[in-house]
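It would be a great kindness if you could assist me with a short task in structural biology. The full record is reproduced below for your convenience:
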Amino acid sequence: MNRFKIKISIVLLMLVLVSQQLSACSMYKITVGNKTMVGCNEDAWRLTPHVWFENSVSNNRFGAAFTGSRFDGVNGYAPQSGMNDAGLCYSRLATYAPPTPKGFIKTGMAIQNPTLYLKDILHNCQSVDEVKAYISQYDHSFFTEDVFIYVDRFGHYLVVEPYRLRIGNQANYVLSNFCPSVTNDKAACRIDRYRNGIEFLKRGADTTLL
């Protein structure tokens, strides 16, 4: 995918991110052939939504577009979702704090600045394998009330839970406000936005943009 197409994809993604009026958070990805479409919506209890672009600062880093609404002082706005010019995108979905696994021991570096940490992932990585390696350096149990999903241009995705990292490559995938490793299908389908997403994909999504 060339950079022009990626920039167009970023604009389309940002339009999807800021135009949804649904409650709570959800994200889906659809891969057809060698192309992937991603869509998500976020909560809007803050009235300060922003879309901003950050250039790469060196040849081995990537420029990225972000959305967010929480101002974090000198760090700027904290990113809720984003996409870089390598085609890697992500969304952050709130969830309840899952129980700490028995025998869990914290490993990796402490996350001192979560805003810069989340930005740096998109500035440094171009695939979910690289994201997994990057995150594995840190104690990502810091985010006990969040689940993240990263999707790369190959259609592979990485689900980041507080205590687990999992890569998948299903053609269609939906995630909402829960950790898949501790939530069965019956419980997940009690969430309207997740159930609606599953039914939407089963009906056959319009992939003409692909």
About this structure: The first helix runs from residue 3 to 19. The first strand starts at residue 26 and ends at 32. The helical segments are 3-19, 114-124, 128-135, 185-188, 192-203. Residues 79 and 149 are 13 Å apart (CA to CA).
